[in-house]
Amino acid sequence: MQRLIVIHYSELALKKGNRDYFENRLLRNIDEALSGCEARRVRRISGRFVLELTPSTDVDAVRARLGRLFGIAHFGEGRGVDWDIDTLSSTAWDLLRPLGFQSFAIETRRPDKRYPLTSVDVNRTVGAYVRERSDARVDLSNPEVTCRIELVEGQAIISAERMPGAGGLPSHTGGKVAVLLSGGIDSPVAAWKMMRRGCTAVFVHFHSFPHTNRESQDKARQVATLLASYQQRARIYMTPFADIQRRILVETPVETRVILYRRYMMRLAERIAVGERARALVTGDSLGQVASQTLENIDVISRAVRMPILRPLVGSDKEEIVSIARKIGSYDISILPDQDCCSLFVPRHPETRASTDRIEAIEAGLDVSGELEAALTASERLVQYAAYDTRAVRQL
Predict the structure, then answer these.
(1) SS (H, E, C) the chain
(2) Which of 1, 55, 152, 372 is most exposed, with minimal Cβ within 10 Å?
(3) Are 37 and 58 in contact (CB under 8 A)?
(4) Which of 49, 30, 3 is nearest to 152 (CA)?
(5) What class is the 2-164 domain?
(6) pLDDT at position 345, please?
(7) How far apart are CA 138 and CA 130, in angstroms?
(8) What is the mean pLDDT of residues 352-360?
(9) Is the dihedral of CA 257, 263, 268, 272 positive or negative?
(10) Residues with Cβ < 8 Å from 173, sequence gap 6 or more?
(11) How many Cβ atoms from other residues are within 10 Å of residue 34's Cβ?
């Protein structure tokens, strides 16, 4: 009898001609994420993955790490056994017995047609065995627990645990994006949503140190470490913005400053993205949430760069965003107090319907190209590893 984890995916099965590519990438991600857990290499069996455990496997760590891997629909601990019906019945009961249930179901799949009994026959026989010993009723519509039996490649894989995965597509299959990471709630959620579609995220954080303290930088690093758990590691650029802000503060109308800040952030992020070979920028904008996120202002800000800007939260309200932030663990980090560069010099009555012609005319009177180069030169580039990774933060 083998102790194992059965790993299922859903969306990958729709990839047809590209399915092997996505499956192989997910296999690599699983192997890398489970490094140090003392589990054997994961293998592919009939549209699912099977991870063999050893007596020294840290099963709790395996569950925690698999739960954050994009591309996994669900997974659960199970057993690999010979497929004679008596063994199937006793193993199913061994897995179900500790769960304490009043109703149950047996679900059998038989991809290996060499097995002599039908799926219905297995369900009936194993179900009768469990019912006799548990005194629980069979409920095929809404059971408290379900035991799943899969007859594949000459063996039976039996599991009664079903833990949710992160879903989506495997990391590193959707191209690279540069995420403008603030100290707030929205941008980590925007990053997570893009990562869930297979994108590799590089983070860009703007700070106004020494005019502000280092709290926003510390928060950005914590968020990058959290999100690195989904893609194993993440690069983050700590980019100084104080000199550019000061020039804008002195030389531009007060109501336009937020728009100008954002346009110059986009320009800096675009240059970093080009250097990283990223194909798009990502922001946490939600339409109408703050003054800089009106449709008019989003349009004007977007025109500062040529690279596509993706806004995965644009149609979400704050309640929806907070719900995801709590789910992924970024909320408690984001609400920590800090002094971020955007709030430092925000006017009381910012422009809400900016004109591209007016903003470009104001920018024509500025000479900030030197500050852009200086900010890029002074940017600190770090590699943040997943929280469970024992490697220290690495500076590039």
Answers:
(1) CEEEEEEECCHHHHCHHHHHHHHHHHHHHHHHHCCCCCCCCCEEECCEEEEECCCCCCHHHHHHHHCCCCCCCEEEEEEEECCCHHHHHHHHHHHHHHHCCCEEEEEEECCCCCCCCCHHHHHHHHHHHHHHHHCCEECCCCCCEEEEEEEECCEEEEECCCEECCCCECCCCCCEEEEECCCCCHHHHHHHHHHHECCEEEEEEEECCCCCCCHHHHHHHHHHHHHHHHHCEEEEEEEECHHHHHHHHHHCCHHHHHHHHHHHHHHHHHHHHHHHCCCEEECCCCCCCCHHHCHHHHHHHHCCCCCCEECCCCCCCHHHHHHHHHHHCCHHHHCCCCCCHHHHCCCCCCCCCCCHHHHHHHHHCCCCHHHHHHHHHHCEEEEEECCCCCCCCEEC
(2) 55
(3) yes
(4) 49
(5) alpha beta
(6) 59
(7) 9
(8) 91
(9) positive
(10) 21, 22, 25, 198
(11) 22
For range 191-210, the mean pLDDT: 93
Q: Where are the domains of the chain?
A: 2-164, 176-395
Contacts of 358 (CB under 8 A, 6+ apart): 256
**CA-based nearest residue to 66, from 32, 23, 22, 18:** 32
Q: Which is more confident, 262 or 291? A: 262
Which listed CATH number (3.30.565.10, 3.30.420.40, 3.40.50.620, 3.40.50.300) goes with 176-395? Answer: 3.40.50.620
Identify whether the C-beta of residue 115 lies closer than 8 Å to the C-beta of residue 83: yes
Which is higher by pLDDT, 276 or 20?
A: 276
The amino acid sitting at 372 is L
Neighbours of 109 (CB within 10 A): 16
**How much is the pLDDT for 339?**
59
Q: Which residues pair with 240 in a beta bridge?
A: 207
Residues near 326 by beta carbon (within 8 Å), at least 6 away in sequence: none
State pLDDT tens for residues 152-172.
Answer: 988 999 999 999 999 999 999
The answer to whether residues 239 and 268 touch, using CB atoms and an 8 Å cutoff, is: yes
Amino acid at 221: R
Asked whether the bond before 350 is cis by omega within 30 degrees of 0, the reply is: no
